[in-house]
Amino acid sequence: MASFSKVPIVIITISTLLLTCREKLAEPISFFENYDLQSGRFRLEARKTDGLAIDNHENFYIDDPKILTKMQQQWIFRYKSDIQPCGYGYAVYLKENNKTIKQISVNLDCEYMSGWIYFPKEFLTDHKNHFKTLK
Q1: Residue 75 · residue 101 · CB < 8 Å
Q2: CA 135, CA 132: separation in Å to the nearest integer?
Q3: Nearest-angstrom CA–CA distance, 31 and 12
Q4: Residue 65: φ, ψ to 5°
Q5: Is 76 helix (H, G, I), strand (E, B) or coil?
Q6: Three-class SS of 46-97
Q7: Which pLDDT score is estimated for 129?
Q8: Mean pLDDT (10-residue bins), the chain, 135 residues
Q9: What are the DSSP calls for 84-131, one per residue?
Q10: Could you tell me the pTM of the whole model?
Q11: 86, 110 in Cβ contact below 8 A?
Q12: Which of 116, 118, 102 is nearest to 46 (CA)?
C-alpha cells in the first residue's frame, strides 16, 4: 500500500524534470534588442491568426513605453521548444513609427514562437490589462 502513495510524487518529480530540461539556445535572443522603447516611437501589435484569443482580445497593441520596457526585460528567450503540430495563434509585430521592424508568430497554448523557441504565454497574458483594441 505504501508504494502507491509514492506514485504521485514520482509523477510530479518526473514532470518537473522534463519541464526544466529544455534545450538551451546557443545564445539568448532578445526580441526587443536594444531599442529605445522610452522614445514613444514603438508599439507591439498582435493579430489573431488561429485558435482562441486572450480573453476576447483578437487584435491589439501596446504602446505604453513603460510596459514595452518591462516587456523588453522579460522577452529574452533562452530555450528551444519541442516541435509540435499546434500552428500559430498570433502574429506579433514590433513597429517603429508605424513601420514593421520585427515579426514573429506565437502559439500560446503550446508555448512556442517561430523558430521553435520557447515562448511562455505569460509574456503576453501578463500584460493584457494594457492591450488596446487594434482597428
Answers
A1: no
A2: 9
A3: 32
A4: -55, -35
A5: strand
A6: EEECCCCCECCECEEEECCHHHHHHHHHHCEEEEECCCCCCCCCEEEEEEEC
A7: 97
A8: 54 49 92 96 97 92 98 97 91 98 96 96 96 93
A9: -S---SEEEEEEETTEEEEEEEEETTTTEETTTEE--THHHHTTGGG-
A10: 0.82
A11: yes
A12: 102
CB 31 within 8 A of CB 70: no
Which one-letter amino acid corresponds to residue 67? Answer: I
Amino acid at 65: P
Residue ranges per structural domain of the chain: 21-133
Query: Residue 22 is which amino acid?
Result: R
Instruction: Quote the CA–CA distance of 91 and 11 in Å, as a whole number.
Output: 35
Q: Which three cell numbers stand for residue 42?
A: 514603438
CB atoms closer than 10 angstroms to residue 64 = 17
